[in-house]
C-alpha cells in the first residue's frame, strides 16, 4: 500500500493531474482490469454482499420511500436497460433510474453493510448503480465483480483517510467517487475518463448531514441512491468527453479548502500499489440488526443483560459509556429531542440509541419491523424506560473506535444500569456478535439465513434457491443472467401497493 498526502494547492501551482487524488483514485479503478487483482476471498465477499443487498431490498419493497423511488423510475423505460426490485421480469429501465429505485430499496431499512473509520459509509450502496450499468451495457458477472471490488477499494480508502462528518458533510460524497471509479473499472474505461467522472461525481453530491439530524426523513434512504444516479450520469458525460471542476479535492476553492479542514488541510489516503490485490471489502462488515451500525453491539449487549436486569420498572437510570460518534450522532449528546420522541419517524428512531437499548432490553432482541412500529415506540413502559437512558462519551471508547488496528477497533460501549435499591449492573461489548471479530461472525451461511428470513413470505423457497445459486455463480453469469440477481416476488402485490401512492411528475 502507498500513503498519498493530499493538501490544498493554489491555482498558481498548476498541480499536475498525476499528483491529484482524483487521478490516483482513477488509477486504482483502471488498475483492476488485470485478472490477478481479483482476489478469491474478496470475490466471495462480493457475492455475500449481493445476497445481503437483495435481502434488505426485497424486505423493503412495500415501504413508501421505496415505492416512490420505483414509481419515479418506471417513468423512464429503456432498452436494453436494467432491472428493478419488485418489477415484473423483462421490465427494463434507464440505468440511472434503475439505480435510483434499487439504491433506495437497499438503503431503506438501514440493514446492509457498513465501514467505519475516519468517516462512515455503507459500501454496499455501490452495488445497485454498478449492477444497473452492467445490465444496460452488456457486461458479464465477471465484469461486475471487478467493478464492485474496485468501488469498495476506493470507498474504504476515502473513509479511512478523509473525515467528512466533522464538518457536517454527508458521507455520500465518498460514495459517489467510489461508484464512478467502480463503473470505470467495470467498463474498462481509460484513466482520463474515470478521473473526470470522479471529480464530477464528488462535485455534484456534496451535501450536509442535516439528512441525519433532527427529524430524520425518508431522504436518508434516497441520499445514496441519488449519489449512485449522479455517478452514472457523471460517467456518461465523461465518456462523451466532458470535463469537471479540477482539482476537485486540492483546489483552492475546492472540496478540502471550503468543505473540510480549510486551506491548511492535509490528509493521508492509502491506496494499493499497481498490481496489488484489491481486498478492502474484507475490512467491511454487515448488520445482523436493522439499525445504525453503532447500535449493533448495543443491541447485543442489551440482549445479554436482559435476564440480569430483572424487572425493568425497577430501573432508576441507564448510562451508556461509548465513543464520540455514538454519543453525538445517535446518543443524548446530539441534543436532538426527537431521539426521545415516541412519535418520531422510523428513520429518527433508527438513530436513537436510547430507544434502541430500551426496546432490546425489554424484548431481548430486535426486529426490522416490529421494533419500529408506532405502537412499540409509544408503549408506556418503553417510554418510561427510554427516558431514563443517556449516553456519555468515554475517551477510551473513542480511542478504540479510531484504533488503526482492525482487530482492536471497537464500536460498542459499556452499560451501567442502576436499580431503585442502588444495585448497579454493568457489562460491556466491544463489537457486535456478527462483526468479523465478534462472537458469531457472518459467513455465507449467515448471509443466506438473513436472506431467507427477510424474504420469507415474499419469495418462494424455490425462488430463494434459484437466486442464491445465481449469486454464488456471479463470475460465470452472462449479461442476460444478471437479471437472476433480482429475486422473483409477487409483482401484483407490489403494483397494488404502488397504486395507492399519490402521483408525481413522471
UniProtKB/TrEMBL annotation:
<dbReference type="InterPro" id="IPR005656">
    <property type="entry name" value="MmgE_PrpD"/>
</dbReference>
<dbReference type="InterPro" id="IPR036148">
    <property type="entry name" value="MmgE/PrpD_sf"/>
</dbReference>
<feature type="region of interest" description="Disordered">
    <location>
        <begin position="326"/>
        <end position="345"/>
    </location>
</feature>
<dbReference type="InterPro" id="IPR045337">
    <property type="entry name" value="MmgE_PrpD_C"/>
</dbReference>
<dbReference type="InterPro" id="IPR042183">
    <property type="entry name" value="MmgE/PrpD_sf_1"/>
</dbReference>
<dbReference type="Pfam" id="PF03972">
    <property type="entry name" value="MmgE_PrpD_N"/>
</dbReference>
<protein>
    <recommendedName>
        <fullName>2-methylcitrate dehydratase</fullName>
        <ecNumber>4.2.1.79</ecNumber>
    </recommendedName>
</protein>
<dbReference type="GO" id="GO:0047547">
    <property type="term" value="F:2-methylcitrate dehydratase activity"/>
</dbReference>
<feature type="domain" description="MmgE/PrpD C-terminal">
    <location>
        <begin position="289"/>
        <end position="472"/>
    </location>
</feature>
<dbReference type="InterPro" id="IPR045336">
    <property type="entry name" value="MmgE_PrpD_N"/>
</dbReference>
<comment type="subunit">
    <text>Monomer.</text>
</comment>
<feature type="domain" description="MmgE/PrpD N-terminal">
    <location>
        <begin position="35"/>
        <end position="266"/>
    </location>
</feature>
<comment type="similarity">
    <text>Belongs to the PrpD family.</text>
</comment>
<dbReference type="InterPro" id="IPR042188">
    <property type="entry name" value="MmgE/PrpD_sf_2"/>
</dbReference>
<dbReference type="Pfam" id="PF19305">
    <property type="entry name" value="MmgE_PrpD_C"/>
</dbReference>
<keyword id="KW-0456">Lyase</keyword>
Amino acid at each position: 500500500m502507498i500513503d498519498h498526502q493530499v493538501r490544498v494547492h493554489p491555482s498558481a501551482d498548476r498541480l499536475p493531474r498525476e499528483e491529484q487524488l482524483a487521478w490516483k483514485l482513477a488509477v486504482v479503478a483502471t488498475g483492476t482490469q488485470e485478472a490477478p487483482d481479483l482476489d478469491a476471498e474478496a470475490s466471495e465477499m462480493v457475492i455475500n454482499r449481493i445476497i445481503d443487498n437483495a435481502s434488505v431490498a426485497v424486505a423493503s419493497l412495500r415501504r413508501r420511500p421505496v415505492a416512490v423511488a420505483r414509481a419515479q423510475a418506471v417513468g423512464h423505460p429503456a432498452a436494453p436497460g436494467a432491472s428493478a426490485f419488485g418489477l415484473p421480469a423483462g421490465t427494463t429501465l434507464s440505468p440511472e433510474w434503475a439505480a435510483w429505485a434499487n439504491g433506495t430499496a437497499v438503503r431503506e431499512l438501514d440493514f446492509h453493510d457498513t465501514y467505519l473509520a475516519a468517516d462512515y459509509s455503507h459500501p454496499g450502496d455501490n452495488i445497485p448503480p454498478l449492477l444497473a450499468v452492467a445490465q444496460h451495457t452488456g457486461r458479464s458477472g465477471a465484469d461486475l465483480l471487478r467493478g464492485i471490488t474496485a468501488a469498495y477499494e476506493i470507498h474504504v480508502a476515502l473513509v479511512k483517510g478523509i473525515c467528512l462528518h466533522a464538518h457536517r458533510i454527508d458521507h455520500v460524497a465518498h460514495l459517489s467517487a467510489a461508484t464512478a471509479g467502480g463503473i470505470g473499472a467495470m467498463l474498462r474505461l481509460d484513466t482520463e475518463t474515470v478521473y473526470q467522472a470522479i471529480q464530477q461525481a464528488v462535485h455534484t453530491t456534496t451535501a450536509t448531514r442535516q439528512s441525519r439530524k433532527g427529524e430524520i426523513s425518508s431522504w436518508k434512504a434516497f441520499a445514496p441512491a441519488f449519489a449512485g444516479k449522479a455517478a452514472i450520469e457523471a460517467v456518461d458525460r465523461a465518456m462523451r468527453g466532458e470535463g469537471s471542476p479540477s482539482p476537485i479535492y486540492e483546489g483552492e476553492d475546492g472540496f478540502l479548502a471550503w468543505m473540510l479542514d480549510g486551506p491548511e488541510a492535509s490528509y493521508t489516503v492509502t491506496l494499493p500499489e499497481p498490481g496489488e490485490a484489491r481486498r478492502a471489502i474484507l475490512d467491511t462488515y454487515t448488520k445482523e440488526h436493522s439499525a445504525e451500525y453503532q447500535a449493533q453491539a448495543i443491541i447485543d449487549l442489551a440482549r445479554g443483560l436482559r435476564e440480569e436486569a430483572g424487572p425493568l420498572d425497577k430501573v432508576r437510570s441507564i448510562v451508556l459509556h461509548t465513543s464520540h460518534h455514538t454519543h453525538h450522532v445517535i446518543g443524548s449528546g446530539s441534543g436532538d429531542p426527537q431521539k426521545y420522541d415516541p412519535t418520531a419517524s422510523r428513520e429518527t428512531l433508527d438513530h436513537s440509541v436510547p430507544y434502541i437499548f430500551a426496546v432490546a432490553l425489554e424484548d431481548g432482541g430486535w426486529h426490522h419491523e416490529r421494533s419500529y412500529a408506532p405502537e412499540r415506540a409509544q408503549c408506556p413502559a418503553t417510554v418510561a424506560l427510554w427516558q431514563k437512558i443517556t449516553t456519555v462519551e468515554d475517551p477510551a471508547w473513542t480511542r478504540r473506535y479510531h484504533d488503526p488496528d482492525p482487530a482492536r477497533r471497537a464500536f460498542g460501549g459499556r452499560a451501567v444500569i442502576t436499580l431503585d435499591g442502588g444495585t448497579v449492573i454493568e457489562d460491556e461489548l466491544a463489537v457486535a456478535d456478527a462483526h468479523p471479530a465478534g462472537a458469531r461472525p457472518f459467513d455465507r451461511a449467515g448471509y443466506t439465513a438473513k436472506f431467507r428470513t427477510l424474504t420469507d413470505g415474499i419469495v418462494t423457497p424455490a425462488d430463494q434457491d434459484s437466486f442464491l445459486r445465481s449469486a454464488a455463480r456471479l463470475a460465470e453469469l452472462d449479461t442476460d443472467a444478471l437479471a437472476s440477481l433480482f429475486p422473483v416476488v409477487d409483482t401484483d402485490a407490489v403494483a397494488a401497493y404502488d397504486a395507492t401512492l399519490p402521483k408525481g411528475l413522471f
